[in-house]
Amino acid sequence: MGKPLFIWKKTCSNCRKARAFLHELTGDGVCDERELNARPMSTEELDLLIGQHDYKLFLNTRNELYRARKMKDLPPTRAEAVKLMAGEVNLIKRPLLVRGQKVVFGFDEDQFRTLLAKG
Length: 119
Description:
There is one protein chain. The chain has 5 helices and 4 strands, in the order βαβαααββα. By secondary structure, the protein is an alpha+beta fold. The longest helix has 14 residues, at 13-26. The radius of gyration is 14 Å and the shape is globular. It folds into 2 domains: 1-36 and 94-119, Glutaredoxin (3-Layer(aba) Sandwich), CATH 3.40.30; 41-91, no CATH class. The protein has a 4-stranded mixed sheet with strand order 2-1-3-4, with helices on one face. The termini are close together. β1, α1 (13-26) and β2 form a beta-alpha-beta unit.
């Protein structure tokens, strides 16, 4: 199944807490990391990451663009959402912990433990 991937932003306090938790739980090097400010995701990478999941789960509902475009009531198509997320990293829900086809959205200690234990 490979190493889990932790997707985060250093400017997000919840992401920093999740990262500290992961390092405390597993030590360094157990997870691959992708810091979105340093390495934004392309549309191809996002499409691959979303896979068979509902793409709406990857949208950050607290984001200004999400609210301004009223995406809750008028969700974009998958292709449009992927393009928007690639152009605006803050529109991507975070942190994400990914292992194979399993994804934990946001920071949940129990879900993080469960996902890491399945390796």
